[in-house]
Structure formats: structure tokens, C-alpha cells
């Protein structure tokens, strides 16, 4: 088939390369001149493990153009542009509307427009009415949400758990499903709005698991239980599943935060108060603040204290800093008067994000530079470099009281304490603090 893709971000580029690898002639429209220039030189314009090699192997079947209107005639055009949050949590559909408008104005009759961007339930039907029907050229619309993860995008594309296709006309849905047939994944064919809802329900449930385990971890701290064992025990029940039970400083990234807010907003818009989801969002917000509270306590205030934040990308394996807990924590600490040095081995900070780190925070080129003279260290992203760091050397480079907040529960707490650190984590207590919590609990009357 001849396939067009609008938007060469994480989803669009992975989809385009995956479809080219499956033998389709693929044309990609990318509006950002710098990204387009990189792609025309054969370079992936962001960090995604394995994608450069994959692109190299299929480059001959790919072309890159500057706008959706310049795409060659296609059987299917995938839309994979950004859908960021608006100020009240609603989805900003500006990029989607622009892309669909351009495709509707130029696509040849009979083209199928497949939406891979995450758009709120009801959007597809509205786009059909606003742009495809008025074009009068028999353009079909299909919702085809994407479930890949950053950092594992290539593998996720090749091994999807399912392919979801929402269509009003079976023929159009079939044409999109055909693009994935070779992957052998289970296929759900449904209507457009249900397909849109599958995407939000999936992300909301994953976010709920994270906020739930974080609440359990917070209670573990009070009763002297150990979240690692608790999560392992819970996950042994296949009905509950062992995934997404990693407690920490909460979820970030370009999708969970915005998609939970968008679903909350959509529910409210339709007159429904989605209490559970509102709580999931609030728990996630508070989980980051707990780090700042804990350091405030441990350092006897934050003004003038020196704190290193390790990890600015929202998770390991990506350079994406959108809604990253590490960035947010650095900003809160700096806002409270701490002198913050932040380090990340890969993260890409936009100019805006550099500014967002604020006057009290600056980024360093190395871990050693970040921790030199710091009184506390926060591990915000579980990069391998942090797991494998020479923590004895880090302790020597720091100043008293040698506090470490392991926001991803990725270090050996006992080992940290034996190096002289005061070790805090999420739902984990080691050494003296664990004994104290258990003793305090034992001394309390039963409720
Ligand atoms: N990042 C991820 O892991 C996943 C993202 N999604 C969804 O997929 C969509 C895209 O996400 P990302 O790839 O992260 O976005 P992104 O922001 O990284 O990339 C979007 C790209 O589209 C380009 N663009 C915007 N309007 C355009 C137009 N009219 N013509 C040509 N190019 C245009 C932008 O310049 C940008 O390069 C979002 O709706 C997101 O929620 C879904 C699953 C996973
Ligand atoms: O819609 C999307 O964009 C994508 O959002 C997530 O993918 P992604 O944001 O790349 O990253 P995840 O691996 O899901 O992690 C999201 C955040 O949750 C945090 N997390 C994850 C798992 C966990 O157990 N605990 C936890 O705190 C991570 O640190 C990270 O900040 C989903 O996993 C994808 O299925 C989905 O397609």
C-alpha cells in the first residue's frame, strides 16, 4: 500500500518505519523544519533505542515532506500529531484539526484517514462532520489508537498486545487492519468512539495502578511494611498482574498526565464527576510533593541547602522531559530556596524547560558535578548509571547530613545506610527507621 504519516514524533516515526519495514511505500509529513532536515539526512531527531538502525534499513522506501498537503497519493494517511493538554486539562486539538484539514483538502478520493493521535471520545465523529464530509471526496475516517511506550517503541510496535480499529464503514477499518496483519496481534474492531475510549481507559487504568500502589506504599511507611515485598505478593495473583506496581514519585511523561486530565475533563463536560480518576491525578501530584516535604524535614528547611536531582527524563530509556517528576521536583526545591543541581545522562530539555528549572537550579554535565557539596540527593529517574554509581565516592563528595531520597526505589537501601547516608525511599524503610516504625506500631493500641 501507499501510506502517508502526518507527524514524525515518537508515534508517527515509529509507525512510518514499521510500515516501511513491512513493505509499504511510506511518505512522512513533518512540519518542524529542524526535524524534517534531520530526517532528510537520515537521522532520527530524538532518542529512541533501536530506531536509527531500523530507519537505516528501510530508508529507501521512505520519503519526507514538509506538510500533509505535500503527501503523494496514499491509500491510508495516519495522523500522529501532538495532542497536548490545554490549561484546564482539556485536549488541545489544534495540531489534529490542522492536519485533518490539510489532508481533507488534498487527499485523493477514497483515502482512509486513520487517527493514531490520542483524541477524546467523540472527536472522530466531529472531525468527520467538520472536515471529511464537507470535502465531498469519499474520505473515510478510522480511529486507530497507539499503545507503544517510549524507550521500547520499536519492540512495542513489532509486538503489540492488540490492534484497535474503530470505523463506521467495515471496508475502511479492514484497510487499516491490513497494515498490522503481519504482526499477528489480536484485533478489536469496533466503532470510532469506543476505539477512542479504549485508549483513555487503558492509560487511566495504568495510571490508577500506579497511584494505588503509591498510596499503599505511603501506608507501608506508617505501619513498617516493605512495598517491594507487598507489590511482589500482590502481583503474584494473575487477576491483579505484576506490571505497573512499581511505587515511586509517580507517573510523568507526555501521556498519562495529559490523558488522565483529558478523560476527567471529558467526563465533567458530559456531566459526570469521575471521582476515582480525580483522586488518581491528585495522588500523583502529592507523591512529588512528599519528596520536597521529606527533604524539608531532613535538612531542617530548604533555603540555602544544596540538593542534587538525578534524572530529568520522565523515565529511563527516553530523552523526553514532558511532565517529568524530576523536572518538577527540581523546580519545587529551587522555588523553596534550595540551590539545585540537576543531572541526566540523556534528557533533552527544551529552552523552555531550562528556564522552568528556574534561577535556583542549573543542569550539570556530569553526576559528579551535581553531587559535589550537596547535602541531599534525589534519584528521580532509575537510569542504570545511577544504580551503578560509586555511591561511596558520592557520599565523600557530599556534605552532611548525607541525605538520599530514592524516588524510584532503585538502590539498595541497606547498602546506602551502611555508607553513611540517611536513606529515604517510597514505602521502604531500612535499618533503624524500619525498626522504629514497627516498634511504634507495636506500641499503638489496635484500632
Ligand atoms: N509518545 C508516546 O509514547 C505515545 C503517544 N501517543 C499519542 O500520539 C500522538 C503523538 O504523540 P508523540 O509522537 O509523542 O508527539 P510528538 O509531539 O513527539 O510529535 C508530533 C509531531 O507532529 C508534528 N506535527 C504537528 N502538526 C503537524 C502537521 N500539521 N503536519 C506535519 N507535522 C505536524 C510535530 O512537529 C511533531 O514533530 C499524541 O496524541 C500522543 O498522545 C500514543 C501512544 C504513545
Ligand atoms: O499513551 C501513551 O503515550 C503511552 O503511555 C504509556 O507509555 P509511556 O508514557 O512511554 O511510559 P510508561 O512506561 O508507561 O511510564 C509512564 C510513567 O509511569 C511511571 N511508572 C510506570 C510503571 C510503574 O509501575 N510505576 C511508575 O511510576 C514511569 O516512571 C513513567 O513516569 C503507556 O505505557 C503506553 O501503553 C501508552 O501508549
From TrEMBL:
Keyword terms of this UniProt record: NAD, Oxidoreductase
InterPro entries: 6-PGluconate_DH-like_C_sf (IPR008927), NAD(P)-bd_dom_sf (IPR036291), UDP-Glc/GDP-Man (IPR017476), UDP-Glc/GDP-Man_DH_C (IPR014027), UDP-Glc/GDP-Man_DH_C_sf (IPR036220), UDP-Glc/GDP-Man_DH_dimer (IPR014026), UDP-Glc/GDP-Man_DH_N (IPR001732), UDPglc_DH_bac (IPR028357)
Protein name, entry field: UDP-glucose 6-dehydrogenase
Keyword Metal-binding appears in the UniProt entry: no
Enzyme class: oxidoreductase
Ranges where the UDP-glucose/GDP-mannose dehydrogenase C-terminal domain occurs: 308-413
Segments forming a coiled coil: none
Record field: catalytic activity: UDP-alpha-D-glucose + 2 NAD(+) + H2O = UDP-alpha-D-glucuronate + 2 NADH + 3 H(+)
Catalytic activity, EC: 1.1.1.22
Pathway where it operates: Nucleotide-sugar biosynthesis; UDP-alpha-D-glucuronate biosynthesis; UDP-alpha-D-glucuronate from UDP-alpha-D-glucose: step 1/1
Family: Belongs to the UDP-glucose/GDP-mannose dehydrogenase family.
SMART domains to which the protein is assigned, alphabetical: UDPG_MGDP_dh_C
An annotated Gene Ontology molecular function: oxidoreductase activity
Residue intervals passing through the bilayer: none
Amino acid at each position: 500500500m501507499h501510506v502517508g504519516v502526518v507527524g514524525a514524533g515518537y508515534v508517527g516515526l515509529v509507525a512510518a518505519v514499521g510500515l516501511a519495514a513491512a513493505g509499504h511505500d511510506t511518505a512522512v509529513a513533518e512540519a518542524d523544519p529542524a526535524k524534517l532536515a534531520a530526517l532528510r539526512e537520515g537521522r532520527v531527531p530524538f532518542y529512541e533505542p533501536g530506531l536509527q538502525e531500523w530507519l537505516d534499513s528501510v530508508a529507501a522506501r521512505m520519503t519526507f515532506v514538509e506538510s500533509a498537503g505535500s503527501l503523494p497519493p496514499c491509500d491510508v494517511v495516519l495522523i500522529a500529531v501532538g495532542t497536548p493538554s490545554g490549561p484546564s486539562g482539556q485536549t488541545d486539538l489544534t495540531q489534529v484539526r490542522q492536519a485533518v484539514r490539510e489532508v481533507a483538502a488534498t487527499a485523493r478520493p477514497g483515502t482512509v484517514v486513520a487517527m493514531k493521535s490520542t483524541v477524546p471520545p467523540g472527536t472522530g465523529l466531529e472531525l468527520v462532520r467538520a472536515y471529511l464530509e464537507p470535502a465531498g471526496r469519499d474520505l473515510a475516517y478510522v480511529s486507530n489508537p497507539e499503545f507503544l511506550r517510549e524507550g521500547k517503541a520499536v519492540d512495542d510496535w513489532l509486538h503489540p498486545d492488540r490492534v484497535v480499529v474503530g470505523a463506521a464503514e467495515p471496508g475502511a477499518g479492514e484497510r487499516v487492519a491490513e497494515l498490522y496483519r503481519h504482526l499477528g496481534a489480536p484485533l478489536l474492531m469496533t466503532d470510532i468512539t469506543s476505539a477512542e475510549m479504549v485508549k483513555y481507559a487503558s492509560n487511566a487504568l495504568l495510571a490508577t495502578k500506579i497511584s494505588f500502589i503509591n498510596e499503599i506504599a505511603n501506608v507501608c511507611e506508617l505501619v513498617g511494611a516493605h512495598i517491594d515485598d507487598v507489590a511482589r505478593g500482590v502481583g503474584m495473583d494473575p487477576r491483579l498482574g505484576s506490571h505497573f506496581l512499581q511505587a515511586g514519585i509517580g507517573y510523568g511523561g507526555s501521556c498519562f498526565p495529559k490523558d488522565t486530565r483529558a478523560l476527567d475533563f471529558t467526563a465533567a463536560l458530559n456531566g459526570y464527576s469521575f471521582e476515582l480518576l480525580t483522586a488518581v491525578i491528585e495522588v500523583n501530584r502529592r507523591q512529588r510533593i512528599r519528596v520536597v516535604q521529606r527533604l524539608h524535614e531532613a535538612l531542617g528547611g530548604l533555603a540555602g541547602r544544596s540538593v542534587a536531582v538525578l534524572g530529568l527524563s520522565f523515565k529511563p530509556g527516553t530523552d523526553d522531559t514532558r511532565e517529568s517528576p524530576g523536572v518538577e521536583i527540581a523546580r519545587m526545591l529551587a522555588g523553596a530556596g534550595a540551590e539545585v543541581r540537576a543531572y541526566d545522562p540523556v534528557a533533552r530539555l527544551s529552552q523552555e524547560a531550562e528556564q522552568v528549572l528556574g534561577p535556583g537550579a542549573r543542569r550539570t554535565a556530569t553526576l559528579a558535578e551535581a553531587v559535589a557539596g550537596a547535602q541531599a540527593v534525589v534519584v528521580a529517574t532509575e537510569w542504570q548509571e545511577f544504580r551503578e554509581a560509586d555511591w561511596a565516592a558520592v557520599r565523600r563528595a557530599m556534605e552532611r547530613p548525607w541525605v538520599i531520597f530514592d524516588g524510584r526505589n532503585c538502590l539498595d537501601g541497606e547498602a546506602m545506610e551502611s555508607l553513611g547516608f540517611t536513606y529515604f525511599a517510597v514505602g521502604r524503610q531500612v535499618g533503624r527507621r524500619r525498626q522504629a516504625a514497627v516498634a511504634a506500631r507495636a506500641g499503638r493500641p489496635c484500632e
